[in-house]
Design brief:
globular; SH3 type barrels; Arc Repressor Mutant, subunit A; single chain; two-stranded antiparallel sheet; alpha+beta
Amino acid sequence: MATASPDSPDDDDQTGSLTTVMEDYLRHIYALERASEGRVSNSTLADRLGVSQPTVTSMFDTLAERGLIDREPYRPIVLTPAGEQAALEVVRKHRLVETLLTEQFGFAISEVDAEADALEHHISDRLCREIDRKLGHPAFDPHGDPIPDAELAVRAETDAVALVEVAESTRVEVTRITTQDEETLSYLVAAGIEPAAQLTVEEIAPFGMVTVSVDGDAGRESLPESLATHILVRPTE
């Protein structure tokens, strides 16, 4: 079943009192708040969703009227407590579906975001609980993102750092990939770089390239700094 387009704020398909488009916006606002230290604007959300800024403005009006975001002129928007709870409910379903698809159906991490986006709006609370139980109450999704628990509590961030911050000759374990771009994820998966992979940082070039070797792989991968910032790792030695 296809998900609603983010450019359709009048969509009538609802989960509870929220449309699927509202749920999409809340989930992405939640993610952007954490990725950009709370600096969520019309333009950043429009870029993320691939819609026009007037479309985002219209949805912001709706979300503000519902009491789901706080909005002041010339300031970033923020989720209200009610908005954050609604966002976390969608985030939990999205990340559990991603985990289900990888663990039970063999999907790659590059394939699960779009599938989960289509399914997250149509999963009942009961089915969500059963998926969680079936998977053994996973703490993290296939990208390494924390899954809110049944009470919507989110686990604290780990001591992981971006790959670009690691010194040469350091062995690390990948803990999280923060991009959802399918092409980028496909490239990383093909290179063996995904959560739980063991890497050795071979070289940090002055012109912005990070070269790593991947355990179990004979070759090396040179990653641009813009990509290496999306790979969070933890030293293993």
